Amino acid sequence: MTITRSFTLLHSIRTHARWQRFYSSAKLRNIGILAHIDAGKTTTTERMLFYAGKTRTMGEVHRGNTVTDCLTQERERGITICSSAVAFNWQGHKINLLDTPGHIDFTMEVEQSLHAVDGVVVVLDGTSGVEAQTITVWTQAEKHRLPKLVFVNKMDRPDADFNSCVSDLSTKLDAKPVCLQSPLKDEKGNLTIFDVITQQALIWHSASLGREYKKFPLLDKHIADLQDKRYALIDELSGIDDELAQVVISNEGFDQVSNELIQQALRRAVAQRKVVPVLLGSAYKNVGVQRVMDAIIDYLPAPHERNQLYDCFCDDFVGRVFKIIHDKQRGALTLVRVFRGELKKGSRLVTTHNTAEVVSKVYEPLADEYREISGVPAGDVAICAGLKHTVTGDLLTTNASSLKNAQKRLQKTLKLPESDVMTEDSDTEGNAEATLVKEIFATDPQIPDAVYFCSIEPPSLATQNAMEAALKQLQREDPSLRVNYDSVTGQTVLGGMGELHMDIVKSRILTEYKIDVDLGPLQIAYKETIEEPALDSFQVEKEISGSKQSVTITLELLREQNELFSLDKSGENASNLNSLRPRMLHVIRKGALSALERGPRVGGQVVDTQIRLHSITIGRGTADSFVMAAVAQCVQKILTTVGTRLLEPVMALEIVAPSERISAIIADLSRRRATINDVRPKSEHNKVIYVNAPLAELSGYSSVLRSISSGTAGMTMQPCGFSNMNSNDEVRAIQKAQGFE
Ligand SMILES: Nc1nc2c(ncn2[C@@H]2O[C@H](COP(=O)(O)OP(=O)(O)OP(=O)(O)O)[C@@H](O)[C@H]2O)c(=O)[nH]1
């Protein structure tokens, strides 16, 4: 080992010892970075890593050398697919930043990382403002009650419009934006940022790649305008924050209010989600990013300022698994947000499903590079190796009784009915506390419905098992990827969020597992539902290896959204159903629900349908597997007899186009069974159309839109549920699904 190398190693060990000793909760920030596709999250994150000294060169999306987009597919396509975690040191604090995907096919990733963060930075493209996916991620962050700040990026572009972005925040997101900065561009397009609180002009030094920036006093011509902006900020905040209001009243005006007091009031207002600070810059041109990093420290909460509900774990460890990734060398790695206790190498923990796990190694997150550390304290994020059974969304605790004890303590403290803490199905509408509790104890993440499916085939029978293993791993990483076996066609079927989603799966199986799979044509994932209730009785008998197997059963199918399976214990059925052992009931339930996986019309999942068991008699010696199959068969028979209707996936579109193109676009949409929800002015020349349309009518729509609008229109779309179809459309859909069209 050379002297230089030993020095470097020593330095890095020392640095790590310091890191681990240094960062108490007050010095930690766990932040998500969210945006519509291409707004500039990855570019902004690259700058943060560079300015924090975590990387020596600045990665660029178009060069495919960014730290956070580390999958081959991300680098090739210039998009984020998997959320990734990076940690860096800024102003004596440690920031764990989760960069998340912007494309609608990967919404699930965003939802999972929000479990792990205490605040979010929402990046807007300064030329487009609030876009469809911004609304989706904003709503997700609201659901998690996360304080936010906004970075209006791409302000170097001539068509960027800061004021329009700020007004979008109030009109489209119902947010209360407070501008902490204001832009000024000179005739060459160079961007100066005015700081509203300190009343300074900030100019970035391009030759140092924006590493340095200077603060200048305002020129006379800007003073009045900036002072008005500062007054407006104080005015807004003192209407929300009593402490600041008192200072304003006692000083009889805004002039004596110090910068510190404004910042303190702002921090309180952000934590209560009453305002959203707005900053601006250009990540690509290296302008403004350090101020976003400062704002993360100044205005977004530290771990101990949130998450008080986890206090019910007392001295026990509790952490939440928000992502599982598969590393070629290290195998499955589990990303855990630690809420209470320390996560150490060698820790023995228990999952929500009561499985014991041992943490063999702990790493510090730096996208695709991992550095081993001895452990992380409460509030921090760790990457763990060695966990074999843990699934995304699991809570990890000290032992099997930790969770139950915590639930009991919480129930007592909050004086909630037991059901609100213990179950996930209880009705807690309107009870914000109970909803929060339910979220914390929810162990299964909400997985969006697949809107497309396609068959997947290995290149040869010999690679079938390897393909299945690869799919299993990918599914552990991305629960929105559905993998099913279709017993009718004998094929493995993938369900997912869109063409890109499936393409990425295929290409990852090739690059990471070296299997060149074939994907069948992409088909729409229709669902099915019954129209009327139906009740029937069946007797199923068979002799297997000389032993008689028999089941006599009466079942009813009802239209019902919430409960999938119920028992009719009224009247004469009560004694029959009461005599069922819980294990047998589990078998019957499993058989019944498996029949809903594949409806009789196009093989779509049967939804909004409840199976009600009236009575069942099981012959002596009948095997569980026979009972399960018999129940499934009976449900399928009722479904076939009563018949089902199709439900089709519907997309919500936002189309922005010049006013003169709007009528042609609407005329085309009306031929696509679309429902126009609203048409609003977007800017001086543009309008935005909000429209819902069936996915089946949108194949190749982006090129159609391009041709109708001569390339002037832009569009975003996202799934927004399933809807009924009329009989003609249904017949056409069935013909298409069966390959007759
Ligand atoms: N002009 C300009 N271009 C930018 C700026 N920031 C990012 N870009 C470009 O915008 C494109 C998208 O940037 P990304 O950083 O990949 O955006 P993203 O939000 O991470 O995108 P996804 O990962 O696909 O969701 C890239 O070509 C960037 O070089 C900016 O400040 N100004």
From TrEMBL:
Does the keyword Lipid biosynthesis feature in the UniProt annotation? no
Among PANTHER family, the record links this protein to: RIBOSOME-RELEASING FACTOR 2, MITOCHONDRIAL, TRANSLATION ELONGATION FACTOR G-RELATED
Q: Which family does it belong to?
A: Belongs to the TRAFAC class translation factor GTPase superfamily. Classic translation factor GTPase family. EF-G/EF-2 subfamily.
The gene designation is LOC105226020
Instruction: Identify this protein by name.
Output: Ribosome-releasing factor 2, mitochondrial
Q: Which SMART domains match?
A: EFG_C (SM00838), EFG_IV (SM00889)
**Could you tell me the superkingdom of the organism this chain comes from?**
Eukaryota
Signal peptide start and end residues? none
Pfam families associated with the record: EF-G_D2, EFG_C, EFG_III, GTP_EFTU
Role noted for this protein: Mitochondrial GTPase that mediates the disassembly of ribosomes from messenger RNA at the termination of mitochondrial protein biosynthesis. Not involved in the GTP-dependent ribosomal translocation step during translation elongation.
The molecular function terms in GO held by this entry are: GTP binding; GTPase activity
**UniProt cross-references to PROSITE patterns, sorted A to Z:** G_TR_2
